């Protein structure tokens, strides 16, 4: 089959695009509001987009609390979403008022960050402490604003639970890193295969 996105004539009950670009890593992003309320939400339009320096990016459909908090405070943590935490990850996507913390909603303990003010998720085995670089509103091919905002941040510090390090390597398949697929689906890493690059 083939369909043009502008026509949306795929004939399927749901848009399949997110089932194609899958799995997408999940940035489980914690921030602080200007009033000091800890906010937490999953973002699957998320990735590491650079090393030297390490830069992460995520996009928000509209200016959600996470982006508003980052624009106000310039800091955020990307916690690793894992299979063990799947229910909590999902729960923290619930739209709640800005004065309500998703940490409380999901029964998650905050842990202090080292270099920035927003807390991280204590139960998450890895966390990236980030400082804001830029937020830009995405434009479409005609240059028209889309309402989707891409935020870039530089990773200042990295937390790792050493239980997942073996022979000097962080074992992604043991972390069971969670990905977002299409629809309401999640998947997770439970196997990897190492294939050296050709020379
Ligand atoms: C697994 C998952 C991934 C999500 N990814 C995104 C995303 O990339 N962009 C977005 O705007 N919303 C995404 N959402 C929805 C937000 O998590 C949801 O709107 C949340 O309430 C935003 O919280 P905030 O306003 O506290 O930032 C996702 C939801 C789930 C469950």
UniProtKB/TrEMBL annotation:
UniProt organism field: Ancylobacter koreensis
PANTHER family per record: BLR2425 PROTEIN (PTHR43812), FLAVIN REDUCTASE LIKE DOMAIN-CONTAINING PROTEIN (PTHR43812:SF2)
Designated name of the protein: Flavin reductase family protein
Signal peptide from the UniProt entry: none
Flavin reductase like domain span: 19-166
Transmembrane residue ranges: none
């Amino acid at each position: 089959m083939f369909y043009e996105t502008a026509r949306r004539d795929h004939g399927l009950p749901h848009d399949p695009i997110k089932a194609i670009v899958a799995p997408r890593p999940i940035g489980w992003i914690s921030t602080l509001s200007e009033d000091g309320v800890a906010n937490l939400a999953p973002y699957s339009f998320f990735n590491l987009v650079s090393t030297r320096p390490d830069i992460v990016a995520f996009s928000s459909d509209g200016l959600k609390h996470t982006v508003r908090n980052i624009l106000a405070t310039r800091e955020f943590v990307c916690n690793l979403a894992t299979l063990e935490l799947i229910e909590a990850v999902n729960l923290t996507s619930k739209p709640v008022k800005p004065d309500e913390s998703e940490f409380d909603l999901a029964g998650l303990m905050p842990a202090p960050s080292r270099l920035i003010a927003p807390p991280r998720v204590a139960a998450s085995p890895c966390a990236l402490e980030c400082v804001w670089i830029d937020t830009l509103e995405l434009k479409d091919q005609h240059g028209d604003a889309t309402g989707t905002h891409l935020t870039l941040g530089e990773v200042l510090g990295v937390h790792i639970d050493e239980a997942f390090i073996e022979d000097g390597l962080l074992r992604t398949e043991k972390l069971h890193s969670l990905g977002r697929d299409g629809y309401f689906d999640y998947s997770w890493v439970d196997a990897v295969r190492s294939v050296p690059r050709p020379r």
